[in-house]
Amino acid sequence: MNLNYKRLPLEFWDNNFKPRNVRDIGGYPADGGGITKWKTFVRAEGLESITEQDAAFLYEYGIRTVIDLRFCSEFEKNNTEYLFNIYTKNKIMLVNMPLIDNYDETRNLYIHILESGKKNIRQVFEYIGERLAYGGIIYNCFAGKDRTGVLSALLLLLCGVSELDVLADYMISSVYLRSLAKKLSLPNNALSSDPELMDEFRIYLKKKYQSTEQYILSIGISNQIIAYEKDKFIQI
Questions:
Q1: Phi, psi of 12, deg, nearest 5
Q2: Which of 73, 87, 181, 191 has the fewest Cβ atoms within 10 Å of its own Cβ atom?
Q3: Largest Cα–Cα distance of the chain, in whole Å?
Q4: By the 8 A CB rule, do 199 and 108 touch?
Q5: Contact at 8 Å (CB) between 33 and 236?
Q6: How far apart are alpha carbons 69 and 140 in whole angstroms?
Q7: Cβ neighbours of 92 (radius 10 Å)
């Protein structure tokens, strides 16, 4: 496992960035002997609590797009007008693109997202392909663990990041979400990132589609878009 503790969100915390479960997914060994680029993709919990200072910091960090992966009803309840205003002031585009339309509690949520959310995932990858030319992208859901975790895993696996590094990146959320659990008066482990869920997801993805790239192709993303996104995210 190549987990480098410089990947932890110290730059965000040092700048008093209000959300806690937030981190850049750059710095991981990837295809062709490269590493995933910093300041390209940042994963996060819900961003409705950010301040104007936070939005200015995101711009300085290189972020030009925010993708909120929550249901439309969730998104609309969370200071939407306020968020649009502070992002617009800082020349950042905000878009709500639900990663899935509904939950299915009878199966692994991540596998459910993979299969039932194909249209949604295709739209997200297409939009990423459009927006990477402008700068970095930060994406979030509610806790930054499940829907955000699935998108993070797909992006990292697509670039050849090791399964152990993908799992490690996912599991860090358990630590950072303690503050959110405390805020909601929940036990510390209530928002834990269970490695078994991500392992089941990864094994299912590999068994059914052979590779993440084959899955992305199967949902309608072209080879050209995949190559472009990998080129933007991998530094040789």
A1: -70, -45
A2: 73
A3: 47
A4: no
A5: yes
A6: 6
A7: 22
